[in-house]
From TrEMBL:
InterPro entries: PsdUridine_s_RsuA/RluB/E/F_cat, PsdUridine_synth_cat_dom_sf, PsdUridine_synth_RsuA/RluA, PsdUridine_synth_RsuA/RluB/E/F, PsdUridine_synth_RsuA/RluB_CS, RsuA_PseudoU_synthase, S4_RNA-bd, S4_RNA-bd_sf. It comes from Guillardia theta. The keyword Isomerase applies. GO terms for molecular function: pseudouridine synthase activity; RNA binding. Residues 10-32 have a biased composition (Basic and acidic residues). This is Pseudouridine synthase. The lineage of its organism: Eukaryota, Cryptophyceae, Pyrenomonadales, Geminigeraceae, Guillardia. Residues 41-72 form the RNA-binding S4 domain. Signal peptide: none annotated. GO terms for biological process: pseudouridine synthesis; rRNA processing. Belongs to the pseudouridine synthase RsuA family. Keywords: Isomerase, RNA-binding. Residues 98-256 form the Pseudouridine synthase RsuA/RluA-like domain. SUPFAM superfamilies: Alpha-L RNA-binding motif, Pseudouridine synthase.
Length: 307
């Protein structure tokens, strides 16, 4: 049976306290978010990884407000403190860049996998995207301060999942996209063994307990019921899931709790961005207007340049 749709969502999605513009706790959170540890600030500035930043600081090559710093865990204010690396003043978000990948199954979202499994960064190399010097640690510029921006994934997709994965050099944009209170919705198409009942979808949409904490309200829509399995007779279903948070293997674990096994999971949308015609395993860099729309969705006012 195809073309069958049932849509379930919680009425509390648009009325949650976190989205209330009058809630002053949000202002306190934003204010506190200006302070980060020094090694993380270099990553957020798009200069290098936190590991390379740690090394630079230990080598006394990083200054804050003209003072040499040797402790990577020093707290700084990214809006008021001036950070200098090798006598070059770092400007916050000098150029925001974002890349979209259609991640295939089987790749690990990490720069290096300790078990030797292939990672998503191999796709950048295969498609002749210039990798940051600190990635390979080769050549003369081994400190991670070359002109090519440091790119890192916005969130994760586990090895068995596929679909839309973003990379950026902008730490603030990444944080906003991952913060549930920003209201940026992520959309997934999930294939299940079996067909969930109405009550099951309602339960999932209202939130269930994961690790002692209830999941936020979400949207679940039954898109299709079809015959699958080796015998071609086992009922399977496709569910569209729209969530704002992204906890560890959240969707798989939610369905497991209500008795269903996820056979396939694909992310198809993040906010205003969709995969479109991007083939599996391919990468493209977002245009300026796409980044602007993404920042608008995250309620970020651009204070720097964009590619």
């Amino acid at each position: 049976m195809k073309g069958f749709r049932r849509h379930y969502h919680s009425d509390r999605i648009n009325g949650s306290k976190a989205c209330d513009p009058g809630d002053r706790t949000q202002d306190r959170k934003v204010e506190a978010g200006r302070r980060v540890q020094l090694h993380r600030s270099l990553s957020k500035l798009g200069l290098c990884s936190r590991g390379v930043a740690w090394k630079l600081i230990k080598e006394r090559r990083v200054l804050v407000n003209g003072k040499i710093m040797s402790d990577p865990l020093t707290w700084i204010d990214m809006q008021s403190d001036q950070v200098t690396v090798d006598n070059v003043v770092s400007e916050r978000r000098k150029e925001t860049r974002v890349w979209m990948m259609n991640k295939p199954r089987g790749l690990i979202v990490a720069r290096v996998d300790e078990r030797g499994r292939p990672t998503v960064y191999s796709l950048f190399q295969n498609q002749n995207f210039v990798e940051h010097a600190s990635t390979t640690m080769t050549g003369d510029d081994k400190d991670g301060t070359s002109n090519e921006p440091w790119r890192f994934p916005v969130g994760r997709l586990d090895a068995d999942s596929e679909g839309l994965l973003l990379f950026t050099n902008d730490g603030q944009l990444s944080q906003k996209l991952l913060d549930p209170t920003s209201g940026v919705e992520k959309t997934y198409i999930v294939q299940l063994k079996g067909v969930p009942s109405d009550d099951c979808l309602v339960k999932l949409s209202e939130g269930i307990d994961l690790d002692g904490k209830k999941t936020l309200p979400a949207r679940f829509q039954l898109v299709e019921i079809f015959d699958g399995g080796k015998d071609g007779k086992t009922k399977r279903s496709r569910i569209q899931v729209q969530i704002h948070e992204g906890r560890f293997r959240q969707i798989r674990r939610m369905f497991q709790i209500v008795g269903f096994r996820v056979k396939k999971l694909q992310r198809v949308c993040i906010g205003c961005l969709t995969l479109g015609e991007l083939p599996v395993g391919k990468i493209r860099e977002l245009a300026k207007d796409e980044i602007e729309r993404l920042m608008t969705a995250c309620k970020i006012r651009d204070s720097g340049g964009m590619r």
